[in-house]
Amino acid sequence: MKVILKEPLVYFLLLSGLLFFVTTFFQQESDNSQEIVVDRASLLGYIQQKTKVVEQDKLIKMFDTMPDDKRADWVNAYVREEALYREAQALRLDENDPIIKGRVIQKLEFITKEYSEAILKVTNENLEQYFEKNKQDYYIEPFVTFTHVFFNREGRTKQAMLSLASEKLHELKENNVPFSQGAQYGERFLYHVNYVERTPDFIASHFGQSLSDQVFALKTVGDIWQGPFESEYGIHLIMVNRMEKGRFPSLTDVSEQVYQDVQREQIQSNLEESYKAIIDTYSVVVEDLSE
């Protein structure tokens, strides 16, 4: 029990339960007389719940500077919700109802998640350790940007395709045809004419593995036509505009993404610890489940 009570969330939940009990006990007479009391503390708590404003000072300032008509809207909303809730309780609609039970659990999970996020503390050491442990997740794949002129193999022999491609390659070089005008030459390809920052797997999915390997093995990058290259569809003349090798980035390059990932991991870890602390306050008896 000492270990359990060291968990701050358990204190929070126990105090919340105690507050609910005391409030219910002392307001029971008022409830029976159909009286709904809207005090400052209750209304502030209600607004905080609806607006998700965590900072108490910010909440109070927002409330104190609120126009009268806006404050009246909050009062009406609070009264409406409280009246409906009490009526539902009076009709015992909350008893043995899986939907109500699910919503109550969902609300507690939300409170637990808010608490887990509130106690986040991401340090530089956390970032460095997480990055080193999960460096593979941040690997930047190689990519290439190119355009191509295509000649279909249908109705042509391989020699005819190569001869046509050789003539067209000479024409493209002779006329210094730029990247932007490559689409004016050749024949219609099944997929795209221009490929911008595409990975080896993507290129292989459109041209086949062999051509993808050849493209990424090219040493010349710039305004020059190269080829011919053969795919299962035909012959291609290619101008590679840009190529980047695969690499592992530095922590500085991906610090924002790593920070978000560390936050996500800490929230999940805090949630699991909080759930365990709550469960540990109970004695669980699993009876014989067999028929």
TrEMBL record:
InterPro entries named in the record: PPIase_dom_sf, PPIase_PpiC
Domain of life: Bacteria
Gene3D superfamilies documented for this protein: 3.10.50.40, Porin chaperone SurA, peptide-binding domain
Coiled coil: none
GO molecular function, one term: peptidyl-prolyl cis-trans isomerase activity
Transmembrane domains' residue ranges: 9-26
Name of one Pfam family that matches: Rotamase_2
Residue stretches making up the PpiC domain: 122-255
Key words of the record: Membrane, Transmembrane, Transmembrane helix
Descriptive protein name: PpiC domain-containing protein
UniProt organism field: Colwellia psychrerythraea (Vibrio psychroerythus)
